[in-house]
Amino acid sequence: MLKKLKFRFILLAMTAMTVTLILSFTAVNIALRTQMSANKDALIETLYENGGQFSLFIHAEPDTERDGSDTDLKRRDGRGKDGFMHSETPYETRYFVAYVDSDCTLIKADFSHIALSNIDNIRIQIDEIAASGKQKGYNGNYRFGRFDDDDGLMIIGVDCSSDMRTINTLTLITLVTIASSVVIVLVILLAFSSRVLRPFEENREKQRRFITDAGHELKTPIAIIQSNTEVMEMIDGESKWLLNIKQQTERMSKLVKGLIELSKMDEQTIDEKEKQRIILSEIVYNSVESFRVVCETKGIELSADIQPDVSVMGDLEDIVRVTGILLDNAVKYTDDRKRISVKLYTKSKRAVLKVSNTCRGLDKNSVSKFFDRFYRSDESRNSQTGGYGIGLSMAQMIMQNHKGRLSVSYSDDEIITFTAEM
Known about the structure:
The protein has helices at residues 2-49, 89-92, 119-132, 161-236, 240-266, 280-298, 316-333, 379-385, 391-401, and strands at 58-59, 73-74, 95-100, 106-110, 136-139, 142-149, 152-159, 276-279, 301-306, 311-314, 339-347, 350-358, 405-410, 415-421. By secondary structure, the protein is an alpha+beta fold.
């Protein structure tokens, strides 16, 4: 149990941290790319407004004496030196300006701000941009904008390769950082998770020990009450009071026995060496036959469809207990339609046991709680049948110890089905 809890704790912590890191770095990456696109669009707009040149940059008259550390600039659109554009922008920016006619044929172009070796590729990009019909976007490493001009369709492309390399490098560093952080935190959690969960495990062990000790202490007074009741019955004869005492002490004895078994099973693990090959078909057949007499007495129709030679690896006593619990539960809680169905077959190399019984009036939302300890969906019915909400919880733990699964479903025709997969 502690191993499962430790695994879930580490899994939850690692998942939360990984998702947080990925979302955070993804948001930063998106913000950088969005800002890059916005800056390039501003550059393209500036070039368009100035006929494909950076002639908008002019020296401003200083209000105070300059210290020589920077050049004060003004832009016609009102953006000053606090913007991303500065005096070096015209010399740092690689761009082209092209004009095409209505047939997407290149009329004229300015390729003086890009390398001559790239001109052939740029011509291809211009054709693609003109044919795309998009007003702005990316084509290769260029951010482009399309404008209607007197000379034709004006296309301006600004090179983004340097910014893209920076962002891609940052993305790579981000991925390495995330992977390193995950490994480091995983090592830390593996080293300290036992210390974190130790108080919980100590409290749980105390609780388990208390249940076991209290159960053994209760056995003696219950046995004395039962024996005294039998003596009184021998002396004074039968009476409804003595009969009531016998019934309640028997119920108490079963409850104490169930609590002790549940407490022991809570920490039980089955080693692979302890498992043996079990013919499940024989176990289910024998269990069905043992309950057939009880069903006939109560007028219950019991049908069985058992595939032969179905085998599993496990503990014989535990597997027998699971089949007994499921059949006993079906006999106790079948309604006035009185039908029980048992099916055993293989599916994807796993054995599947289904035990179904008619059961009116169940709340579908509460069906999943049947495996909770001491859960009772109908207090009066459980009181009559002697149920305590322990059996199904015990069956589920046995299945978990066998690396199997026990589930429950409730159909629209009011039939409840318990499915054990091993």
